[in-house]
Amino acid sequence: MTITVVSDGVIWLDAGAVFGLVPKIMWSRVAGETNERNQIPLALNCLLLESDGKTVLIETGQGDKDFEQTRQRGWAPDHGTLLDDLARNGVQPSDVDIVINTHLHNDHTGWNTVERGGALRPTFPNARYWIQRGEWEEAMQPNERTRATYLPQNLLPVEEADQIEFIEGETRVTSEITVIETPGHTANHASVVLSSGGESAVYLGDMIQHEVQLERVAWLSAFDVLPLINLETKKRLVAEAITHRHLLIAVHNAFPGAGRLSTTEEGRTRWTSEAPHAWADGETPRP
């Protein structure tokens, strides 16, 4: 199975929120680029797969619904490129059979819907959208803290079109793709395990927002609704990834977001970015 990372560009988020309780004097050493608003760029890496004769898209990025709001804040949007990137890979929205959302925050569901004929409709008209039922229920009944992260316009048109495939817990999507429970960022957050040719990869979803959060599991984002549960989820996944040499693919790590974990001689966890095999000649891929 070929894994193609497709990009919806990048979003800029407050670095203090990304790193939570970690002081700036610590996160500034590893955060890389920041702008004058104290924001860092987070990639929007989505996955395009062919499995069991199905075209599968995991995650749909930030989309284009906030473009005007972004311009009003004084800068041009750096996101919204997913459909163009799919087209560059020979895929049109009507070609997609399955969409998987790890959770329903707006930067992971933006292209779930698109405006057509003056109304919002599912962007992928022939797809089933695989969504954890518990996550949907949380999105439909948000509280004061979560309501700004769930945008009904990304969700309700898909329900109205009867295109949602509700799932509960660990679920096999194809013979090579399995959705697993990874709670913490949200109570019903999921990740996706890819298994083919004797190798395994895990698409992390929003378990992390920066690669250092895999190396230092106690570094938790302020966006995590259940931070201590996310800590335990990360510890388990990190241990498994080191033992089995899983390829990990992170939504928000710099494009293409792929890498592996290992243990140093000092016993510390180390993340090593890994470019896809097709780019092993040294070419630097860009979204």
Describe this structure in words.
The chain is α/β, with parallel strands linked by helices and 287 residues long. The chain has a single domain (4-279), classed as Metallo-beta-lactamase, Chain A (4-Layer Sandwich). The chain contains eight helices and 15 strands. The strands form three sheets. Strands 9-10-11-12-13-14-15 form a seven-stranded mixed β-sheet. Strands 1-2-3-4-7-8 form a six-stranded mixed β-sheet. Strands 5-6 form a two-stranded antiparallel ribbon. Strand 11 (190-196) and strand 12 (199-203) form a beta hairpin. The longest helix is centred in the C-terminal third of the chain and has 18 residues, at 227-244. The radius of gyration is 18 Å and the shape is globular.
How much beta, percentage-wise? Answer: 25-35%
CATH architecture: 4-Layer Sandwich
For the report, how would you describe the main beta sheet?
7 strands, mixed
CATH topology group: Metallo-beta-lactamase, Chain A
How many E-type strands? 15
Distance between the termini: 21 Å
DSSP summary: helix tally = 8
Q: CATH homologous superfamily - what is it?
A: Ribonuclease Z/Hydroxyacylglutathione hydrolase-like
Q: What's the pLDDT, averaged over the residues?
A: 93
Trace the largest sheet across and list its strands: 9-10-11-12-13-14-15
Count of distinct structural domains: 1
Helix-strand makeup class? alpha/beta
Query: What is the radius of gyration computed over CA atoms, rounded to a whole number of angstroms?
Result: 18 Å
